[in-house]
Amino acid sequence: MEFRVKDLALAEEGKNRIDWAEAHMPVLVALRQKYEKTKPLKGIRVAGCLHVTKETGVLVRTLKAAGAELSWCGCNPLSTQDDVAASLAKDEGIAIFASRGVTSKEYYDDIHSAMKLDPHVTIDDGADLTVEMHKGMPKSIRGGTEETTTGVIRLRAMQKAGKLAYPIIAVNDAETKHDFDNIYGTGQSALDGIIRATNILVSGKNVVIAGYGHVGKGVARRAAGLGANVIVTEVDPIAALKAKLDGYSVAKMNKAAEIGDIFVTTTGCKDVIVDRDIAKMKDGAILANAGHFNVEISIPGIESQTVQKKEINDHTMQYSLKNGKRVYLIGEGRLVNLAAAEGHPSEVMDMSFANQFLAVLKLAQQGQTMKPLVYNIDKAQDQEIALAKLQSMGVEIDSLTPAQKAYLEGFAEGT
Description:
Blueprint: H1 11-22, H2 26-35, E1 45-49, H3 54-65, E2 69-73, H4 82-90, E3 95-97, H5 104-115, E4 121-124, H6 128-135, E5 143-146, H7 149-160, E6 168-170, H8 175-198, E7 206-210, H9 214-225, E8 229-233, H10 237-245, E9 249-250, H11 253-259, E10 262-265, H12 275-280, E11 285-289, H13 299-303, E12 306-311, E13 316-321, E14 326-330, H14 336-339, H15 346-366, E15 374-376, H16 379-392, H17 402-409
Parallel strand pairs: 1-2, 1-4, 2-3, 4-5, 5-6, 6-15, 7-8, 7-10, 8-9, 10-11, 11-14
Antiparallel strand pairs: 12-13, 13-14
Protein name: Adenosylhomocysteinase
Binding site for substrate: 53, 125, 147, 177, 181
Family: Belongs to the adenosylhomocysteinase family.
């Protein structure tokens, strides 16, 4: 078996971490137990391009138990947990090509190595694997999934341009993904990354959050919970209005730049913080990105004003500017929750990866009959996963009576 990891000697530590995650992912484990005997993915080749974390390790185990043949690579140069990658190679026996801190060339080399499996199904986070698959004529491909907002945006653009060659299920758009993974997962883990990298006191700070989508809402809520004064910047008037009515200040970035202590970008767009904003910042301002790609904070915009760079720790770079001030960039402007921390808590990824598993199952069985479009997760699947999660937490809910169902589905009853 071909693979590329940093150090196989890390495998035992990685296995322990995957075991820990598995103990906190009951929905995905229940799916494994349901399908490991029938093996509906037997003969199906799956190529994954996801953050190589302990939670991803549980997904890999589940796909493998269902019969899939797997290849894998990381979807971000700084998000791979090397011990987990080692365990997936040694203990799970999959063709994995991933290590932390790869160059851009090495990153794409790993993607191309994973593609050699000639997959029936792709699992992607950010759409880099999917885009690379489209550069050569897909051979055995039946369909793919997409995990994150940025990737879904790219793939819908491909569909609009008539360039999408095979069906994609937008796992990100499932309510049990973006309403939980993005809000509760990123909300907690982004601040975790900032605190691990700096040990700064959040309470009393002005925290500027660029974007008030699901991720922005989550980060804002948790920053406020830690005592921060939250300032939101937006381009969407509806999102800005929501932020204002949720109790946060709303301002343009050029104003927020002058008063912010900590900046977190969450938009999925590029050039959210640029050179003119950086020039206005306080001495000691901290910059972090919680969007998928490292284009939200303009690194060239920082470096164009820099007279000296100094690495403070493995995650934090100090930039001394021409105006005498210093700014600090965490994780090279990449996903702060994975570059400087461990990513989302396992309990949240349980639902996201349950959606991934069921989407792969659907594509393996029906992908050849589906049109090359971006599809949403079925509402019934969303509700099934939410109910399973509640049950694992010991929570019971009511159900509609026949009379209530008839009332909601009818129109005859009035005042």
